[in-house]
Amino acid sequence: MSLAAPTSLAALPSPSTAVWQLGPFPIRAYALFILLGIAVACWLTERRLRQRGAAPGATLDIAVWAVPAGIIGARIYHVITSPAAYFGTGGDPIKVFFIHEGGLGIWGAVAGGAVGAWLAARQLGIPLTVVADALAPGLPLAQAIGRLGNWFNNELYGGRTDLPWGLEIHRMDGGQALRDEAGQPILEEGLYHPTFAYELLWNVGVAALVFYLDRKLRLGRGRAFALYVMGYTAGRFWIEMMRTDEANTILGVRLNVWTAALVFLGALIYFLRVRGPREYLIPIGVPATPTAPTATSDVSQLDLSAKQGSTEPAAPEGYRVVGEEEFQHWRETGETPPGPADDDTGPADGDSPESAATRPADRDT
């Protein structure tokens, strides 16, 4: 990374290089930060899923579906909301597939990723609400890290400013800053609001808020994820209005501002209407190793010893959704609580773990 000399002492510099060549292969800062964000989100989600009873590696099984689906969804949203660059006058439709040139929409990423996570969760027998709540603080951290890619690309900045943290912007071409006759990177005139940095800091705050309230209130039924959505969209609403990059508008207001407002409203309604304790998982077909774990332990209590006649580790056949007291009792004793056939308090016959976790009786109507 090379940084040009700032135009004043009170200015934030920008990188003049966003792409490096490793032989014939381009290494793009934007892609690196996206991948780093995904890795951080997966690590944190894995810890939180294991605390809720999922077998080790469940996050990777889910990510195999959710990450590609999220990228596809993000690209589809970008193309739909910015069609002129691909299908308008002078547009090139083949560039729809040039993801490496940028153009991913967070709204499409969340929607596409949710579909992929849902498909994977069904295969694993884990309710989607459990996955969503486990992901809730990791997703804004991933978004925060990904915004550093915008800094390297010298993009997604706001209007002119004379604030001490005003951002210098290079004139970029192909991932490199254009240079003058003296070989110095060419800067745009003046300083600009670093809106990507505003969103980065806001997302870190959202992650901290979700983590704190989830731990304090023991949120369940997808409410931790709804809290993340509310926090993120509240910030995106005002940050989006500061941006100056081209965007489609409705009634003179950027499309993403309307989207943020509507998604916030939907998340708020969900958060207020849905009730129920946090969901925990007891695996089916895999015995527990009785221990006395701490409340924050991320060590799995499953006995993943080799199957009879096989060197491959055992894997749960599915999961039962239980409350916190039942889960703690199972971890400490290895005794599985009574199932639907043993008492009248469990899910009705034929209920899947996912449907049992979202039955109407669990909702505040």
UniProtKB/TrEMBL annotation:
It is found in: Cell membrane. GO terms for biological process: lipoprotein biosynthetic process. The chain crosses the membrane at residues 28-45, 57-77, 97-119, 126-146, 195-213, 255-272. Its main location: membrane. Keywords: Cell membrane, Lipoprotein, Membrane, Transferase, Transmembrane, Transmembrane helix. Pathway: Protein modification; lipoprotein biosynthesis (diacylglyceryl transfer). Residues 322-334 have a biased composition (Basic and acidic residues). InterPro entries: Lgt. Catalyzes the transfer of the diacylglyceryl group from phosphatidylglycerol to the sulfhydryl group of the N-terminal cysteine of a prolipoprotein, the first step in the formation of mature lipoproteins. This is Phosphatidylglycerol--prolipoprotein diacylglyceryl transferase. It comes from Micromonospora phaseoli.
